[in-house]
Amino acid sequence: MKKLLVLMAVLLAVVLYAADPNVLVDVTIGEPDTLDPHLAYDTASGEVIYQVYENLIQYKGSSVSEFEPRLATEVPSVENGLIKDGGKTYIFPIRKGVKFHNGDELTPEDVEYSFERGLLYNPAGGPVWMLWYAIFGIWDVTQLVEEVAGKPYDELFDENGNPLPGAEEVFKKVYDIVDAAIEVDGDNVVFHLKRPYSPFLNVIAQGSSWGAILDKEWCIEQGLWDGQPTTWWKWHDQQKEESPLYQNAMGTGPYKFVEWDRAQQKVILEANENYWREPAKIKKVIIWGVDEFSTRKAMLEKGDADIAYIPTQYLDQVRGNPDIEIIEGLPSLVVTVLGFNWSIREDSKYIGSGKLDGNGIPPDFFSDVHARKAIAHVINYDALINDVLKGFGKRIPTALPDSLLGFDPSLPLYDFNLFKARQELMQAWNGEAWKKGFKFSVAYNLGNEARQRTAEMVKMYLEMLNPKIKVDVVGLQWPTFLDATKRGELPIFILGWLADFPDPDNFIFTYYDSKGDYSSRQGAKFREFVSTPMDELGGKSLDDLIEQAAAETDPQVRAELYKKVQEFVVKYAISVPLYQPIGVRVQRKWLKGWYPNPMRPGDDYYAYYFEGKE
After folding, report:
1. Which parts of 4-128 are beta strand (E)?
2. Which of 31, 392, 570, 606 could form a disulfide with 312 if both were Cys (CB 3.0 to 4.6 A apart)?
3. What is the CATH number of the domain that holds 513?
4. What is the tens place of the pLDDT at every residue in 186-198?
5. What InterPro entries does this protein's entry cite (predicted)?
6. Which of 378, 361, 339 is nearest to 485 (CA)?
7. Are 390 and 422 members of one domain?
């Protein structure tokens, strides 16, 4: 009944926008996680931020290596004198005459504030680590605090969370270091990198929400960091819902944020008529999370939706419609990986009893390599790609996508093999896992049928191997699913990764380094494992190898280092790569102006216009 009522509400609301040439309706799955640019780290959030905010530079068309100016008037280069000091200084002349949606004029101080707020806010599990790594060569603000104070960040506070004597001096010194790295010089904003970092422009280009430019004055009025040198700690790692930008957005972009209707998973944007470029041709955009495929399909076929997420297994259901355009074979810099939590939260509701007693699993169940390998062998990869994705995906040996430096097709692939899975289970936990059986849950985000099918495979084949094994499959709304992974509650998580910037470090570091974005989802035992020196790695840790590869300037040497990293990853089944998708897009033929770019988190509605929609 509930599903029927939701469906009726969606269809009723669609009538208001059906075939309106001034309104674009994009039906997808899920909804944003947050609209705060410095915490948003998913494509649903990034797509909204992309329309509302602007960065200093943007990618040129479909290229992932050429740039054009955006809020800066020039793209820095050695040739134009805006990259200096051997690649450590970047100068951005800031465009004049640009206004924020509230009428405030863009200034270089807004740019400075935007980056400094992000660096000092530095939320756990967010994307700001890239700014820290690119500019300072470290991973987060707490690392800088420890360097300045000589003690961990947490030791600067008493048991009530109040700063101890001397802490304010540390906060001021940390601020001064950040402030000196990003400074205003007349009409320019100058970035001083600690060392040359060639992907820096990729890191901050349009498409990366963490490079979005905020209105300093408005942000302070909303309750963000007040810009003072000694107060930033009050906002550091603020919880998602506590951020004033959680459900609010205001930038300089071609679209203004109007509403985020959480009940209907619907975001409404309207054209910025005072945009510094020509105003957008399409005056209203509705991004609508409609998890039910049949509803999305019906909306697309009737012309009530202009763009629709159509899972590849259902493409044949919309083929042959003269009003629908299917664009296939699109390149992607995306991987989908099944990851393991080696130290699940003890209070997780997804681990049953929390013990290896036949009714649950202990929190460190997947710290056993045999438990991980068993999962790797119960996934029917060919069926997933051929039957679910309808061929729109390919196998990859690790979380590194094809086309990036270091990709090695000669590395072994995990195979679907129930005999091997049984052997691994019989060795897991000294045979106790097989003898006693176990129970846990596998969650997926609703609407993603490939992830649902993967979860169902894990259940079906594990239970087939041993009747003492029980697996529950749980579908969660996207924000709920994402939060559960971040809190370390899920034993297994299935997540995709869209490149933040087109470099192998963005994938290898993310999935396999103890400081990578997914490390919090993988648990303390995972972090200990990859950060511990090992003889087979020449006395280095996996972390050491990954960070050595990131700093290496010789492409051939770098590729060899990545091969060594990946051989270790495969040997220990650190995670299970499922597939690299092959892109496909479905839209009404009256929509014009679309162009591909694998670095864009969704659509660029500003480029679109309608032809023949009445």
Report:
1. 23-28, 57-59, 67-69, 83-84, 89-93
2. 392
3. 3.10.105.10
4. 999 999 999 988 8
5. Peptide/Ni-bd, SBP_5, SBP_5_dom
6. 339
7. yes
